[in-house]
Amino acid sequence: MSLGALLRMWRRRALLTQEQLAERAGLNVRTVRRLENDGLLQPRTTSVLQLAKALELDGAERATLNAVARGHPTDRPTTAPADPRPWTIPRQLPADVAAPGVRERELAIVEDHITTMPEPDEGVVFVNGMAGTGKTVLAVHAAHRLAPRFPDGQLFVDLHGHAQATAPVEPGAALARILRTMGVPAEHIPWHLDDCAALYRSVLTGRRLLIVLDDAADERQLLPLLPATPGCQVIVTSRHRLTCPGNARILSLDTLPLAEAITLFTRTAGCDGDTPRDVLAEIVRRCGLLPLAIRIAAACLQARPAWNAHHLLDRLAADGLTELTAGHQSVTAAFDRSYERLPADQQEAYRLLGSALHPAFDLDTAAALLNTTTTQAIRLLDHLLNAHLLQEPAPGLYRLHDLIHAHASALWPPDGVSAPLRVRCHTALLT
Ligand SMILES: Nc1ncnc2c1ncn2[C@@H]1O[C@H](COP(=O)(O)OP(=O)(O)OP(=O)(O)O)[C@@H](O)[C@H]1O
Ligand SMILES: [Mg+2]
After folding, report:
1. pLDDT tens-digit profile of 294-313?
2. At what angle do helices 18-25 and 29-36 cross, to 10 degrees?
3. Selection from 189, 164, 185 nearest residue 174 by Cα
4. Alpha-carbon span 380 to 399, nearest angstrom
5. Which ligand is nearest to the Cα of residue 334, counting in written order?
6. Sign of the CA dihedral running 110, 111, 116, 120
7. Fewest beta carbons less than 10 Å away: which of 202, 217, 317, 349?
């Protein structure tokens, strides 16, 4: 075993980063790196002593280190453990429920980025989009397909950015959980976030691991969890457009094209081939081409053997989607969770925009609806755009997705907003 390999092995056993070992040993971190890369073959005796102490080597290990550092091969190559780091290979991916023929183009983009990322670069794919567009399903499906390339395992971490009745996971808590699942004893997990993140990177060093970070709330939560470790690649999902590292591939998931929406509906509802295509098209349009809504409508049809697609369409035409639920899923609940996470001024802006009779409007109309200046309106609109609660089909033109419009208008009237303001808003739209 070379000097570099020995030092690396003992450093990892001590759960230290290169920076931490350098600090403990009173050496420059560049010296530690060169030693580990076998770029410095005969270090000074004092440096060797300091390293042995920092690594808490026992007598036999010190003798081995001294011999190897003097250029003598170790006499115990076979007794050295292959890798002393605690390690349990994680296989944490949830079930793959992706329907064939749906989101194939987006899947190819994710796979491409992960498989063609030249080592040692770290690959991050960042999937964002409004509630229910299929971010998690896509990330999990891609991770299953890519799994064979990552022999050291696949991690799936639900960050609860928009979970019901659960606050977003603190980054330190997420790191501690990951470290525990990988076999690091609880007493070795540092309290301080920076130390925890350093240990996380250290444990991942030299491993090929795929990490899915699902439903990230914001950058504060996400950034400590990006390992920046060669060999480890990451797929992040979020309802927000977050600022990611420079080499991240950003993929915004929109609603589905009509043909894919029909495919998703027929595959999941188990429709017979006799249902006219225009009926299917009308159903998925009423679902706003949103995968979550299509899935719920399909589940409703499946749950009522007496219904056919025509009955479902009648029901959607009469009541809209808000009444429909499938198990614990509902479109209203998904949108509620985005709305609840907004600060008060953005919540009010969302409700006011929802009060408009028409879901599309320009900046001046938005400013009138929001009863504010255009500068302030732009700020509020930008926040809603980032949260994927608003779309900007062309510069200066805004649009609420039909289902979002229905959700926001159902929140009317906003508390404390007077009737005259509502009249002013509608007048602005009509002029
Ligand atoms: N490719 C797909 N194949 C089959 N079903 C899908 C697909 N994409 C989405 N769905 C259905 O839509 C539902 C919502 O998808 P998913 O949970 O991935 O959305 P999301 O964008 O992650 O939503 P959120 O923002 O709430 O996390 C899923 O439960 C699934 O039923
Ligand atoms: Mg999700």
Report:
1. 999 999 888 888 888 999 99
2. 120
3. 189
4. 14
5. 1
6. positive
7. 317
Which tokens sit at 379? 């700020």
Residues flanking ligand 1, CB < 6 Å? 97-99, 102-103, 129, 131-137, 162, 215, 237, 239, 264, 291-292, 295, 334
What is the pLDDT, as a whole number, of residue 323? Answer: 64
pLDDT of residue 82: 46
Q: Which of 110, 137, 236, 331 to mutate to test the pocket of ligand 1 (most atoms within 8 A of CB)?
A: 137
- Give the Cα separation of 417 and 421 in Å (integer): 7
> What ranges make up the beta strands (E) of 104-248?
124-129, 154-158, 210-214, 233-238
Mean pLDDT across the stretch 347-369?
93
| CA–CA distance, 388 with 369 (Å, rounded to integer) | 19
| 234 phi, psi to nearest 5 deg | -130, 140
> Do 84 and 15 form a contact (C-beta atoms < 8 A)?
no
Rounded Cα distance, 100 and 55, in Å: 52
pLDDT tens digits, one per residue of 95-128: 999 999 999 999 999 999 888 876 545 689 999 9
